[in-house]
Amino acid sequence: MSDDLSHVDGDGRARMVDVSRKAETPRMARAEARVVFSQGVRARVLSGDLPKGAVLETARLAGVTGAKRTSDLIPMCHPLRISEVKIDFAPEGDEVLLVTGEVRAVDRTGVEMEALTAVSVAALTVYDMVKAVDRGMEVTGVRLTHKEGGKSGTWRRDG
């Protein structure tokens, strides 16, 4: 069993993969999440009309911080030298805010977890800053949408 699992040793114990022999190559990953609001709340978020202030800029900074701190949160993630993090927000449908993130690095392992963490933390920050006016919000659809680099090459989500 452990021969097929990269994060398990021969005795079935969790381990961090040794990437020291891998070449440093450019890596990129994109991820997305959605925040679903109650009627009329998204418009207030986009206009900045909320008690806690600049929701989206605070969430953008939180997403960048989340990407940089991923190895502190996910036990088997390697600390990476991240070279760029982008977090963006776009309205989708009637009451949904799409949170997208892109992470880049030149390193020995991919940045998928960093991109997923970035959009998750950004979406959770939106929730935190808006919960006083909409406790019924939902954070949904956290998923990887694209990755490039490494042994497995390029991958894109269909649909």
Structure summarized in a few sentences:
This protein is of the alpha+beta class. The chain has helices spanning 41-47, 55-68, 70-73, 112-130, and strands at 25-36, 82-92, 96-107, 138-148, 155-156.
Protein architecture, described:
The chain is of the alpha+beta class and 159 residues long. It has a single domain (25-156), classed as Molybdopterin cofactor biosynthesis C (MoaC) domain (Alpha-Beta Plaits), CATH 3.30.70.640. It is 28% helix and 30% strand. It has four helices and five strands. It has helices spanning 41-47, 55-68, 70-73, 112-130; strands at 25-36, 82-92, 96-107, 138-148, 155-156. Strands 2-3-1-4-5 form a five-stranded antiparallel sheet, with helices on one face. The protein is elongated, with a radius of gyration of 18 Å. The model has no long low-confidence stretch (mean pLDDT 92).
